[in-house]
Structures are given as C-alpha cells and as structure tokens.
Design goal:
There is one protein chain. The protein is an alpha/beta fold. It is 42% helix and 13% strand. Helix 9 packs parallel to helix 15.
Length: 492
C-alpha cells in the first residue's frame, strides 16, 4: 500500500510519513499491528534504512508508533488524532440531560472557560510543546534506587499525616538550594511544598486578594498565572512587556493601587526577556509604596546558557513584599507534581493555617525521595547535565529555523529556558493562530504568541519548545512546519 515517487517534490521521508500516517488514521493499519523491520522496508521500497528510520522516529515522536524492546515497532493502541477528536460529534442524549444548565454555572467559571488553554491538559507530547523537560535524559535508575530504598525503610511517619506545609527535611533542602543557587533569603519554615506551581499561585491569590481587587499581569503572560488571578475574582490589569520585562511605569499609570503584580523576571514567559536590576528595583519600590504583593514565578531559572543564573527578585526585597514560586515538574518530570512557595516571615502562620484547610496533607514518600535526590547531589548534577543538553537542542532549533526559513522568521533565541520565540512579520504578522491551528491538525503542538496576550498584539509569533525533543525530531519538525505553512497559503 506504500509507494514512493522519486520525481515528487516532497522528500522520501515526507512521502513515507504521509502514506503511513494516512494508513494508520484510516485504520488500514490497525492499532497493535506490527510493522516490518527497517531492513525489510528498505529492500521492499528501494530506499535507504536511514529514510525508514527517520520516518519511524517522526511517527514515534507524534505518538503514532510505539517501540517494544526486542519485539519491533507497532501501531500505537491510542492514536493522537483520536485524542483530539474524542469529544467531538453529537453527545449522548442521556449524558446531555445529566449536564448542568448554563445558568447553574458561575460567571467565574464562564470566564475561565473562555480563556485559551493551548492544550495545557493534552496528554500527548508532540513537537514543539513547551514546558516538557528532556524525559529521555532523566536519571531514572537513580530515582528508582532512591524510591526503593525509601520504601524498604519507610517509617510510619511517612505513611501517616504530615503537616500541610510539607516534609520538613525537603523544606530544609529547598531552602538551602535556593539560597546558594538563586540568592533567595528564606528559612525552612517559609517554604511551603505544593502540588506544582499552579497550586502555589492559587493559594497565594486566594489568601492575598479579594474579589474586585486589581492585579497586574505581564502581557503577554503565562496562562496559568492569569487563570489563578481570574479564579480569585480579581480585575486583571494587562501591563505591556518590553525588552526589559514588565513595564512598571505603565503599570503604575494603569492601576497605581493594584494589590498584586504577577511577574516572571528572570526569564519572561513567553517572550524570554530578562528584567534588569533597575527595573526590579523600580518594581520593588512600587510594591512598598502601594503596599502591594509581588508574585515572582521563577520557572526554568536553572537553565541559563551564558553566565550564572540571575539572582532572584525575592533576594533584593527588604520590605517582605515578594512571594517566590518554583517547581520541580519542569526540571525533573511533570508527573512529579511538586512545587514550592516561599512566603515572607510575616505570612508564615497565615499560610500554614490556610494550607491545612485548603490542601490538607501532601504525599510524603515522593517528597522524601526528592529530598534524597537533592541532598545527595543528584539534583545539582542533573541540572548541570540538562543545561548542556538544552543548550545543544536550542542551538539546533535556532540554526534549523534560520536555515529553513531563510530569515523570514525573526527568531528570538533567549539566553535561558526551554523554548524559542519565532516572530512573524509583514502580511503574516497576525496569523500565528492560523499557523498554530494548522500545525495541530498535522501532528505539531505550537503555541501562538497572541493566545498569551490580553490586548491585540501588533506582531504575532510562534512559541516553540525544544526541551523534550532530540535534534533529529527538531529538524524534522521544522521542515514539517514549513510544509504546513506553505500548504495553508502563508508565505514566510
């Protein structure tokens, strides 16, 4: 059923990819079917094994194929395109009757529902999804050994209830690490362990803001921060981001008495700019004068590729107005779901009581394993190794974008993080959403810059994650992106 045409303008890899993908989606090749070996297909089709391997790699990366060690390559049992369409079609009448009437849902929920998610809840990991670390490079053997040791010697304390702020030895390890690596000033009792950064955002907004309060947010900004503010019922004030991060002067002009500012100063998401010292001091001065709070989200701060990671905004704060948020989910692996919130000393007792009421008790064994991972030096070694891997993948993506698009995309290769911003220009400046939607239909997961913004942007862009993808997948993904763009009548 599969043929190649050497006279076709498409490459052999693209032809084979299209043919196999069509056969899989049409169920001509059914889930669980074992494919011939690369050697067999190479002989049958008269193409090189490298061509077959590149095609298989791309289909595996997109979830169409799965490799069983020692047993060959199979069609995946659950196809990515089926995941995208599983909720489409006419709902079952019985199920429709069980759903609440629209009038029963809150205005807050409707506001949240209207927010773009960009596939935040998608289970598939397709190029170029952001926020996913290099899972292929995670030291699973070390983590397994530490987990096994913990379970073999587990104490009744770890199987019972623990104080809601988290496992105290882990809080000590986090405090020590942040003090040396990020310049954060805190004691262990100021550290609250959370289920990722989103819980940290939610509890901070719930305790410090009243419905109707105003809060600054970077524009464009991380959607999770915006979601936490909306969920708290506050009036979100979009403040433009320039080459130095959040524009404090504009924020004061728009809402001088705002109760909070949510910022990502070390590596602004999604634009990738860094807030300089002068702008940081300006922000701290405003918070002091307005008696406002600053939520500093320091995601991906470990991965800076030139010089040492920048010191935190919290470390400059002498008036106890900054709350510091971090997560291990993006540094180690997403399903770990362990983050942390650092609060000023004056808020420790209030947050301890609130955490007990809102979140009760945190899972302890995973926290204990993470504590061992940090205290035994594995975390620091892992970060150093990942920094090198991400630097290489960042360079591959940057060079491939420059070469394939020949300068038609303005590539902002930030000095930190795990994603690149590619801005559109000219007649296509506002078509980033069109490209994102088209890419999604063809197996890529690309976020449009405009979906992160509250105001209309003059120049759109594509947010391209590279952390989870090998150089081969990145190169194939860029070429596939070019094909998708051209097939949709967009000239870049």
């Amino acid at each position: 059923m599969i043929t190649v045409d050497r006279g076709d303008s498409l490459s052999m890899v693209q032809q084979l990819y299209n043919a196999l993908r069509t056969a899989i989606l049409s169920h001509t090749l059914k889930p669980g079917t074992r494919l011939p070996s690369t050697r067999r297909l190479s002989t049958d089709l008269g193409v090189s094994r490298n061509t077959i391997s590149a095609t298989f790699d791309q289909l595996r990366a997109e979830g169409y194929l799965e490799c069983r060690v020692g047993d060959g390559t199979y069609i995946s049992s659950q196809l990515p395109d089926e995941l995208l369409t599983v909720h489409q079609g006419s709902p079952d009448p019985a199920k429709r009757r069980s759903e609440p009437d629209a009038t029963e849902l809150s205005v807050r929920y409707k506001t949240m529902q209207a927010m773009p998610t960009g596939g935040m809840d998608s289970e598939s990991i397709r190029p170029f999804r952001t926020g996913i670390p290099a899972l292929d490079a995670f030291p699973i053997n070390i983590w397994t050994r530490l987990t096994t040791r913990r379970w073999r010697t587990v104490s009744t304390n770890l199987l019972s209830y623990e104080s809601s702020p988290g496992y105290y030895p882990l809080r000590e390890a986090i405090s020590e690490y942040l003090g040396s690596a990020r310049g954060v000033n805190c004691r262990p009792d100021q550290v609250f362990v959370t289920s990722g950064s989103q819980d940290a955002l939610s509890v901070a907004c719930s305790l410090l803001l009243n419905p109707g309060d105003q809060a600054w947010i970077e524009d464009p900004a991380y959607r999770g921060g915006r979601l936490a503010l909306v969920n708290a019922g506050v009036e979100v004030i979009p403040v433009p981001v320039d080459s130095e991060g959040l524009n404090v002067a504009e924020g004061i002009n728009r809402a001088p008495l705002a109760r909070m500012a949510y910022v990502t100063p070390s590596y602004q998401y999604p634009c990738g700019v860094t807030m300089p010292l002068s702008r940081r001091l300006e922000l701290l001065k405003w918070a002091q004068n307005a008696r406002a709070w600053i939520l500093e989200d320091d995601y991906n701060s470990e991965y800076r590729f030139s010089g040492r990671p920048l010191a935190s905004l919290q470390g400059l704060d002498t008036n106890e107005r900054v709350l510091y948020i971090g997560t291990f989910s993006k540094v180690l692996f997403p399903s770990l779901r362990i983050g942390y919130l650092i609060v000023p000393p004056t808020l420790v007792d209030s947050f301890a009581r609130a955490m007990q009421m809102m979140f009760h008790y945190s899972p302890l064994v995973d926290q204990a394993v993470l504590c061992d991972f940090i205290s035994q030096g594995h975390f620091a070694r892992h970060v150093r190794r990942m920094r090198s891997i991400y630097a290489d993948r960042r360079l591959v993506l940057d060079q491939e974008l420059q070469q394939v698009f020949e300068g038609a995309l303005q590539v902002d290769c930030a000095a930190a993080g795990m994603h690149i911003m590619a801005r559109l220009a000219g007649a296509n400046a506002g078509r980033d959403t069109d490209i994102s939607v088209a890419a999604g239909r063809h197996g890529l997961q690309i976020h449009a810059l405009s979906t992160y913004a509250l105001r209309r942007l003059g120049q759109g862009g594509l947010v391209l994650g590279y952390g989870a993808y090998t150089p081969r997948v990145l190169r194939l993904g860029v070429r596939k992106l070019r094909t998708i763009i051209r097939e949709n009548g967009i000239t870049v």
